[in-house]
Design goal:
With 151 residues, the chain is of the alpha+beta class. 33% of the residues lie in helices and 27% in strands. It is globular, with a radius of gyration of 17 Å. The termini are far apart. 11% of the residues are buried. This is Protein kinase domain-containing protein. GO terms for molecular function: ATP binding; protein serine/threonine kinase activity. Keywords: ATP-binding, Cytoplasm, Kinase, Nucleotide-binding, Serine/threonine-protein kinase, Transferase.
């Protein structure tokens, strides 16, 4: 097996929940409680890492936004990892890409997905302000200090 760990969490690097440009997300467990979590391991410590950490840590809890648990360091590589709530329903992409949804979601399912996405975005909007959120979405980077925002 290919295990990695931090001070409090253990995960199998084969048990991948997803991979992206900045790293991978794995299913893990708290070593003492056995609680399941999602562990995001970044390839390198970039601005993207710090931005995601800032948003997760400073956004009040909401049903449609993954919950931040902690930030730790992978013991072997010394890479920082973000420990988050494990969401077992799959990604929006996986739901849409599922063969049974080949011709689209039903109207009720689509409305439910849209309602949840808008609710989460609205929560972020209220926390960071419209201009900040739109800037993040449009550019995928944090604005520089003193930069003007418009919504």
């Amino acid at each position: 097996m290919h295990y990695s760990s931090s001070d409090n969490y253990l995960w199998n690097t084969i048990d991948s929940l997803g991979k992206g440009a900045t790293g991978g997300v794995f299913k893990g467990r708290h070593m003492k409680t056995g609680n399941s979590v999602a562990i995001k391991v970044f390839n390198t410590e970039t601005n993207s890492f710090w931005r995601e950490l800032d948003i997760l840590k400073n956004t009040p809890m909401h049903d449609n936004i993954v919950k931040f648990i902690s930030m730790e360091t992978e013991l072997s590589s010394k890479r920082r990892v973000i420990i988050m709530e494990l969401c077992t329903g799959g990604s929006l992409y996986n739901i849409i890409d599922h063969p049974e949804n080949g011709f689209g979601l039903s109207e009720d399912e689509l409305m439910s997905v849209i309602r949840d996405v808008v609710s989460g975005l609205n929560h972020l909007h209220l926390q960071k302000g419209a201009g900040m959120l739109l800037f993040y979405i449009a550019t995928s980077q944090a604005p520089s200090s003193g930069q003007e925002f418009t919504s």
